[in-house]
Amino acid sequence: MKKIVGVRFKPAGKVYDFDAGAFVLKRGAPVIVETEQGLGFGIVATSPELRDEADPPRIHKNIFRPATEKDFQQREKNAETEKMAYDFCLEQIGELEMEMNLFSVESTFDSGKLTFFFTAEGRIDFRELVKILVNEFHTRIEMRQVGIRNQAKMCGGVGRCGRAICCSTFMEKFEPVSIRMAKEQNLSLNPTKISGLCGRLMCCLTFENETYRSLRKDFPKIGQFVKTNRGAGKVIRHNLICHRIVIRREDGQEMETDLDDIEA
Length: 264
Known about the structure:
four-stranded antiparallel β-sheet
């Protein structure tokens, strides 16, 4: 059996499994781990647990050691390098007149590689830019074009609810969102009201979608003629949360009634 811990490298980022070995680790502990890019700085996201060997056994990278004060200093040094690289790259993009939006720079823990994240309308030829960056920083350079939703996740912000956006706080991956979900929840289809900071449909539309679909099964369809103890008419609106419907009677009057008042 192996002692496995989950490690997260970014807030709301994906949790990766590592072999804790003989280390005694608690949730929230900073650690140095072995990654494909070399050593990395992460935070223990899930407490250690013993797991049986899979068949065939799964290979896990190891926890190299708990983080030390020197590691935190290296992290601060990397942050300074990232800021300097961001400012320099932004200046070069302007001089080369490239149509791209640079929004973040990340350095590996050992400073062996700089990754520049950007968005753009189409494909960008950044070969000349990479040459300039290599000559300036003398390290490996990667230019990574991402979608607008990934930009919002990495940069963060405050949503229309007044809280930090979901993708930057707890969502590990993006779920498909459709306009049908907004219709299912009787929301306004005004794009400005159902779109997030990224300009795409809000991710939170997926959170309650299954609940609304489940509740709707008990409701008569819009336009269906129903009878109640207070009169009869056609269903024109649903109030799923309050378990009520609005009907229009034959005299044109609208009436709201409880779903239980409908006669079989």
